[in-house]
Specification:
By secondary structure, this protein is mainly alpha-helical. The protein folds into 2 domains: 291 residues, no CATH class; 197 residues, no CATH class. 66% of the residues lie in helices and 5% in strands. It contains 24 helices and 6 strands. It has a 4-stranded mixed beta sheet, with helices on one face. Strand 5 and strand 6 form a beta hairpin. The longest helix is centred in the middle third of the chain and has 37 residues. The two termini are 24 Å apart. The C terminus is likely disordered.
């Protein structure tokens, strides 16, 4: 064991002391962090698109601007309510609005929208009927509207997150002739401009969208949706259809999602529950990378040491089994170092990165990263999966002389390893389905499939039976790898055929079957 530990220490420190190793280790949590936070951060980093409008209808643009201001102020009131619930306030608010967060937090979204409509249009309750807070806001109505209209895109982005001004700004100083607007689009002073036809209520004749970039259609979809809302109201009015009745007719039937607890009681489903269902898929991908990378490292190390004859020097002072145990243990420690680093980085990343990038996450990832079910499953299945595939690859590495020769074996192994990735989504959707259960009992797939089913979760009996099958498979593979390793590690020349390796497995320890193509290791030594 002392000699095996020396080999293990050498393998471990030879790997972890290189800069390339740590660069590869840190690359995974960086990519995962960017995958979760990148879209929100990139969206926040985008500059607002400037656009202009030529309104031949004479009324649609002003109506749309009114509706847009109502929608934006409703969003502002909602963000103020959310900030108040977290015990903080928003900066750079005008004095009449600054202390209204608690008032807005007591309203629902419909009430906040009514308040915004009253503020924009000047309609609503009489001052004697309005609450003191609402009366105070209505008393400063014009100054509040001037404040909002005068905010630049930078000021809006600094204070608010989801208003339309964060993404799109209408240029009020743009001319109304198309030639000038075309040149402004070419010079990138405008992203695009719209032409509203003379009678949008009747149809879309004469309405156009002109841009230098038609692939980015965010502005087009947003503006079209806003215009459609206004035109729909006009059409309902012309047909004397009450807007409330029309909304009721078009309202879809909504089924509220509920889940059953272990005791059989109904519980409210949340975004966090959805994240928990799909979190195992992320762990499966990490598990796949870890097992493939570390086991492949074992194969590469074995073949390199065999090709440069370092193996012969090592075997002059230890047995092949001691060498094999040492190499597998050292690479396993390397793998555990990689996993420990990943988990630490993911935990710190979920806690610190959103604050550093000033990005609000819609769900709490720390609950997932620190979940003991996921962590214990991940660590256990990594060790068992590594021992299974590591035994196969170290046995293979002992019979090949170059990495080029080993590529023939890597093809089938890669096909097996890709199966869990292909099945991640179907198993995530139905973790206790027939396919998931059947694949759980196939040892090469067990670590990945059972990790993918962790949100199900599988029954205790399934955990016990699949783990016992996987342990038995690991023991068989380690036994076979040891039998092949002790003979193949000193062989040179053409790799042995499969039938010859079967004879090695049947041969008693201490005996080497004679081969017509290879001299025995004992005669060569």
């Amino acid at each position: 064991m002392n000699k095996a530990l020396l080999v293990a220490g050498r393998e471990f420190f030879e790997n972890v002391k290189t800069k390339g190793f740590w660069f590869g280790v840190m690359l995974v949590p960086i990519l995962y962090t960017f995958m979760f936070l990148g879209p929100a951060w990139l969206e926040k980093a985008k500059s607002a698109k400037r656009y202009a409008v030529i309104d031949h209808s004479g009324w649609l643009l002003s109506h749309m601007e009114t509706q847009l201001m109502i929608s934006d102020l409703t969003t502002v009131f909602g963000e103020m309510a959310a900030a108040h619930a977290k015990g903080r306030g928003l900066s750079d608010l005008p004095e009449p609005l600054a202390e209204m967060g608690g008032y807005f937090s007591e309203m629902d979204s419909a009430q906040r929208r009514r308040m915004a409509r009253n503020l924009v249009t000047g309609s609503g309750s009489e001052p004697s009927e309005a609450s003191p807070q609402e009366a105070r806001l209505l008393g400063h109505r014009q100054s509040l509207l001037d404040w909002w209209q005068g905010l630049s895109a930078r000021d809006v982005k600094a204070s608010f997150e989801t208003t339309s001004k964060n993404r799109f700004i209408r240029s009020t100083s743009a001319p109304s002739d198309q030639e000038t607007l075309n040149q402004m689009v070419i010079d990138e002073e405008l992203f695009a401009y719209f032409i509203i036809g003379p009678d949008p209520v009747t149809g879309s004749q004469g309405s156009k969208y002109i841009s230098h970039n038609l692939t980015d259609n965010d502005l087009l979809r947003w503006f079209s949706a806003r215009v459609t809302e206004v035109v729909r109201e006009q059409r309902l009015g012309q047909e004397s259809i009450d807007a409330t009745v029309a909304a009721w007719i078009q309202a879809p039937v909504h089924f509220e999602g509920r889940k059953l607890s272990a005791s059989g009681e109904e519980e409210e489903a949340s975004t966090q529950d959805m994240i928990r269902q799909w979190a195992p898929a992320a762990f499966v991908y990490l598990l796949w990378i870890a097992i493939f990378t570390i086991a492949n490292m074992l194969l590469t190390s074995t073949i390199e040491e065999k090709s440069n004859r370092l193996i012969e020097v090592l075997l002059s002072s230890m047995s092949p089994i001691q060498l094999m145990v040492g190499k597998m243990s050292g690479i396993a420690l390397t793998g555990l170092t990689v996993i420990g680093t990943w988990i630490t980085c993911l935990l710190l990343g979920t806690l610190l990165v959103p604050r550093l990038l000033d990005v609000n996450m819609p769900f709490d990832l720390t609950v997932i990263v620190t979940d003991p079910i996921y962590l214990v499953s991940f660590g256990s299945y990594f060790i068992l999966g590594y021992l299974l595939y590591g035994a196969i690859l170290i046995g293979a590495g002992s019979i090949f002389n170059t990495l080029k020769e080993a590529q023939a074996l890597m093809g089938p192994i890669m096909m097996i390893l890709f199966i869990p990735l292909i099945m991640m989504v179907p198993i995530g959707q139905d973790p206790n389905g027939t396919m998931a259960k059947v694949c759980s009992y196939i040892p090469p797939l067990t670590p990945f499939v059972m990790m993918n089913r962790a949100a199900g979760p599988p029954t205790t009996s399934e955990y016990v039976v699949t783990t016992l099958l996987l342990l038995a498979s690991v023991i068989v593979c380690l036994w076979a790898a040891a039998k092949i390793f002790r003979i193949g590690i000193l062989l040179t020349g053409k790799p042995p055929k499969f039938r010859e390796m079967l004879r090695w497995l049947r041969a008693p320890v201490g005996q080497v079957p004679e081969s017509k193509e290879h001299a025995s290791p004992s005669t060569r030594s």
